[in-house]
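Quick start: what a row looks like.
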Amino acid sequence: MDIIHFPDDARPPRWTRPVLALGNFDGLHRGHRKILDRVCRVAGERSATAVVMTFDPHPPRVVRADKAPPLLMTKAQKIDAFEGAGLQGAAIVRFTTEMSRWDPEAFVDQEYQVACWISASASASKLSATPRRFNASASLRVVC
């Protein structure tokens, strides 16, 4: 499994037309597995690469550290689980206080310039790390 730190690292050349799952994915419950299974299936159908984009640190630990829930998995456990789910790559976004202040459009424009290299996307849930909740999958679809 290829692991990059976004946006610092370039997309590996072997990530052919990545199909992207976007989310925190802490714990990898059945809903998460369903999303990852779909990404792997679609990537297989398109002869593409199944990739996950997740955040480190977990956004609540940056936004409201005093109220952040305990993590269910370490980053290493999460990477192992992604690999076990059949994903071929992980792009780990360094989540910052500055990023937490971005509005949804800036979040997509600034951080998710991956739109230029993904062929499909799926969102784990509505992301709540920005001031206003937004549906990342729908936002990425618009950008793509």
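That is the whole record. The chain is about 35% helix and 20% strand. Residues 2-143 form a domain with the Rossmann fold fold (CATH 3.40.50.620).
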